Amino acid sequence: MSKTLSTAKQVQFDPLDMNNYKIEKLPKRSKSKFEKVLATIGGPLAILLFILLYFFAQPLYLSHINPDSLSQYARKIYDTVGSAEFSRMNMAMLAVFALSIILWMTEAIPNYLTSLILIISLVLLGVLSEKEAYAQLGHKVMWLNIMSFVLASMLVKTGLAKRFALWFIVHFGKRASSIFLSFLFINVVLSAFISATTAKAAILLPIFMVIAAVYGARGGNDKNNFGRNIVLQNLFYINIGAGGFVTGSGANLLAASLIMGATSADIYFSDWMTANFPVALAMMFLGYIIAVKIFFPLKKEERLPQIEGGMARLKNELAKLGKISYQEIKAIVLFVSILALWSTDKYHGISPTAVAFMGAIIALLPRIGILNWNEVDIPWHLMLFSAGAYTLGAGFKATDLPSISVNAAFDAMGFGNNTPFWIFYLSLTGAMMFSALIFQSKTMRTMIFVPIAIGVAHRFNYPVVSLALPVAFLIEYVFVLPFNSKPAALLYETDQYSLTDTFKYGITMMFVGWFVNILLGETYWHWIGIVPNGVFGIF
Questions:
Q1: 296, 180: one domain
Q2: What is the pLDDT of residues 179-200, one digit of tens each?
């Protein structure tokens, strides 16, 4: 009887029906034995590490904190509470940070729950006041994310995103290679409008999963290189495309805010795009070439559709949408207006968050708007996760833990004012790049490494942007392992590739990206004034 029901379910499943690939319908991937072990030991290990750090460890650098080296914000706290209490706050911050990292990495408990524990721990341990800790949910980048999900919901509700992607695939996806390049272009366009990488992944996933099925990639035991290519390349494009625009993700905006707070210079949408969009585009093409030529070359049969009439089904899906509607036209006008305002922020001074706010308000207006609140899909568990990361950043700001640690490390290693610039450039960009292997939050990496870069620049009298911007341009390299970002976790559930597949492709693209970052620091970014003397001073 159970066998008959199983067979009936298989018959009912239509691999070319996009509705079968919505996020809520993706099968829950079973954890590997290693992942289960990590989840089992994660909780006890995190608690043990917290106890050791908070109650027993006494790092030597905390006994000789130099008040003069603290940030202005941390110095005020130091003067208020005294050296002993300030040292205790640092130990509490370090202990909570270690606890959070272990829990996030091992997924012993849901990520949003880890964030909630983090927030209340910093309050109870006296690192942050309740007002400051809870207020991080209202951070301006959080509002940008919320407004972006409103706008992304408008794309889904009107069908505009689906129409654009289907139209492009139908007209330009005549063969396997052109399909991959089509998704590259689609991701570039969506990255300019949508500042939530998870939203982009949710929009594109049903489309490329149908195409994967057309080419015989059904996942599970039926994996093939077409499936590996289309999912892993989209994961790469989704993240790297976001790096081309300061509005590409909330972490980019946060980095720009941190840098602007440390220098009198402004970083506008156009400045970031001029510096990093060509780089993002070049990296996406390199990612395509390395995937199809080196790691996942297509066999002859994988270059041809395996399901008869599969591409015709996509044409039918496009035809079902009918002629472009008035609502879609309004959505196009609204998005183009938003992009125009973002691109000209240097001239009018309105922040990207404020622009997204205005766009979302117009989209939600009764009668003349495009959608209502009940049609907005905001993943609040992700918002709580992000709020925890911002609270962690607030704790770092209050204790100045990253700068204190860096200064102590440099003193211990004997770095002086004569240390060559390239040592700091390579060290900081390398740390930012490869930290993505262990950190789950782009926001958290931004809050740790961008301030460190700013601190190093101040200590050794280098322009802040010469170190902080190249570090910030590496924020979006979060595609190697499933826990490295929300899109990575989401697309891993498709079961189109293995952990080995994503690691070997992802780690290679990391090294390529780091090399490109160093090369640009010596050439293009030197020529446009970001790295005034170049990394090595050759040109």
A1: yes
A2: 899 889 889 988 887 777 877 8
